[in-house]
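> tool_call: predict_assembly(chains=two)
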Amino acid sequence: MSRLIPHPVLSATLVVMWLILTAFSLGHLLLGTLIALGAGWSVEHLHPPKPVFRRWLAIPRLMAIVAVDILRSNITVARVLILGPNHPAYHSGFVELALTMRDPNAIAVLAIILTSTPGTAWIEFDQEEGRLLLHVLDLRSADDWQSIVHDRYERLLMEIFE
Amino acid sequence: MMHLEQLPPWAAIIIALFVVIGATLTLLGGVGLVRLKSFYQRLHAPTLGYSYGTLPIILASMLMFSLTEQRLVVHELMIGMFILITTPITLLMLGRAALRRDRDRKLGHDEIVPPRNRPEPPTEEPAKDA
């Protein structure tokens, strides 16, 4: 199993993707499976850190939280853009956070979440010290961001990955 | 196969509404690129376009082609997924490059950037995160 299909989740996703992009037929199923297995083998040669999913149930919860947060952030940023960047109610700045996560896959997912949220931009991450530098468009206080990132995302991500 | 005129009115209204919402958010993101002052602020503007600027347009497209072709059309979800995965990489690299430039005293400063806590190692360090 592990020799023949080194990355079962990746390969299965690729097969499903292939079938969505084409029409379902036996030929496409075979071709898609071949491509997915080939992709799995080539990824195996890159030696990425393998993700271990501990709790699948937390994934939809995280996705729902992220969807709501991105929507809220969209509205906030849209308001900033309409009122103009010189409006006194808003000021942007850098925030430094400490992350307790060490799993590279979890950190990659967190990077996607924070970058996809319009109000926050991921600038730099120091892997050794676990320091993360964010740029926030509508900054209120640095403590808020530490607890927002920790309570809303980091805890769920640690449940999923660690 | 159904023609565009045969689309039920409720569907046409929903599709038009979603496309207008998505297009408006994307336009706002574009306006933000012009209006915002510093490079780091401008990093936030295009995210509007690729998060909830893309999503309603994808949903509208799925609804419209599912109705006109009378089968479930979901491959727009792939577009959304690829945009969601690939765009952060560009923004991350732009952010890091700007930070590197602004920490260098010889080059121009856009905004006061926080310094690196530990001293820079003398040798070129490998890329740590992507």
